[in-house]
Structures are given as C-alpha cells and as structure tokens.
Amino acid sequence: MKLYIDDADTKKIRELMNYLPIDGITTNPTIIARSARPPFEVLREIREIIGHGRDLHVEVLRRDCEGMIEEAHRILRILGDDTYIKIPVTPDGYRAIRALSEEGVRVTATAILSPMQAFLAAKAGASFVAPYVNRIDEMGYDGEGVALSIREMLAVHEYPCEVLAASFKNSMQIQSLCEEGIECVTAPPDVLEALIFNPSTDVSVDRFEQNFRRAYGEDATMLTVPE
Ligand code: G3P
C-alpha cells in the first residue's frame, strides 16, 4: 500500500519523511491555502523534498475543461511531467480527465463520493481515483465500503487505475482499508502520527531502559557492555 501525506506544511513533511515510509504528497486548494505561502513556492519546495522518485498530486482550480487543461500544463511545466494532476469529477472534469489522459498526463480524479463517479473517471483514463472516505461517512454512508466497491469494480473491468483513498480522520478508517489491501492511502499528518504514537509504547521503552541501566550501569546500552 502506498502511503501519502495529505498536506503542504513543508516542515511537517520533512519531519514525517524522516521516519515514516512515505510514497508521496497529495495537496488540494484548501491545503495549499493553509500553507499561507505562494502556491508554486510551496509546491516547488515539496518537489525538492520528495524529488522525482515520489509522487506529487496537485489540483486545478478552473471549473471549465479548457481552463483545467491549461492549468494542468502549467503545473507540469513548473513541477515536472511526472506530477499527478487532480481533477474533480464534475462534467467538465470528466472531459478534462479524458483529454489529459489521452495526452499521456497522469490524472487523479478527486472529490469522489460514489463508486460510479470513480468507475467513469477510470474509464475516462484516470490513473488514480480518490474517494473521500470520511466525508462519505459523515454523509451517513460507508466510506470504506465505497472505496472497496470502487476497487472491486476496477478489478472486474481490468482498468489500469488505482484507488487513492483520501479524507481520513482516524486510524481505524485506514486500518480497515489496509487490511483489505487498498492500493493507496493519503492522510493528514496528525492522522499519520496517530497510527504509530502510543503513550504505552513509550512507557515500555522507559522501563526497558531503567531495568537495563539498573543492572549494567548508568548510560549502558548494547554498545557499552563488554562483548
Ligand atoms: O485531499 C483531499 C481529501 O483528502 C480531503 O480531505 O479532510 O478535507 O475531507 P478532507
């Protein structure tokens, strides 16, 4: 399963990438605005941090197909041809997904709330489809179920398109999809941190250290004890 950070805070991205096996960064207009920095300045810095070996997803703002395509070309010119262009699944969005995919642009269809929205984006040529798991949950439906149903449909129809599950608010939403083998998950830093931090783990580590030091001396580690 690929794991992305859904954020544009470059300090946080550097910090998380130090210890988590991160495969890329996803952004959206809200995330970029939250950075309070010029969009291409922050996106260039993210590209610099992750290089071209990891994925960067950037969303367009224009609502018309022609505008989306123009924005996509500008994003690719500035951030590299390997950047994924996020296009929302509106009628103009489907046109843009199709046109850009035919050009060979990597497209991530986004703001997906139902299996058929995803299916049609994949049919139009999207490389990724991004169902918003928590937002679907909040609407009273089953976000994980929608993500899995999309994956099933793409597999049955043999579309070369992966599910990039997004909009997570807690660890269990991610764990359930991980257990089912979802291809890709993107989550904000606090949700990613909550996947691994547990105060009881720290208590265990503290006790190990105290017991070892009591037996072998202050500051003893496996480097200081005799062979
Ligand atoms: O990046 C898109 C998606 O992750 C939105 O998440 O938290 O705004 O529902 P959220």
Main attributes of the structure:
single chain, 227 residues, alpha/beta, TIM Barrel, 2 domains, eight-stranded parallel β-barrel, 11 helices, 8 strands, 53% helix, globular, binds SN-glycerol-3-phosphate
Short summary:
This protein has helices spanning 10-19, 29-35, 39-50, 65-79, 91-103, 115-123, 133-138, 143-156, 171-179, 189-196, 199-216, and strands at 2-6, 24-26, 55-59, 84-88, 107-112, 128-131, 162-165, 184-187.
Give a written overview of the molecule:
This protein is of the alpha/beta class. The protein has 2 domains: 2-195, Alpha-Beta Barrel (TIM Barrel), CATH 3.20.20.70; 197-227. It contains 11 helices and 8 strands. It has helices spanning 10-19, 29-35, 39-50, 65-79, 91-103, 115-123, 133-138, 143-156, 171-179, 189-196, 199-216; strands at residues 2-6, 24-26, 55-59, 84-88, 107-112, 128-131, 162-165, 184-187. An 8-stranded parallel β-barrel has the order 1-2-3-4-5-6-7-8, surrounded by 7 helices. The longest helix has 18 residues, at 199-216. The mean pLDDT is 97. The structure holds SN-glycerol-3-phosphate. Residues 6, 26, 28, 132, 134-135, 166-167, 186 line the site of SN-glycerol-3-phosphate.
Q: State Rg.
A: 21 Å
Q: What average pLDDT do the residues reach? A: 97
Ends distance: 40 Å
Q: Main sheet, how many strands, which sense, barrel?
A: 8 strands, parallel, barrel
- Give the helix/strand class: alpha/beta
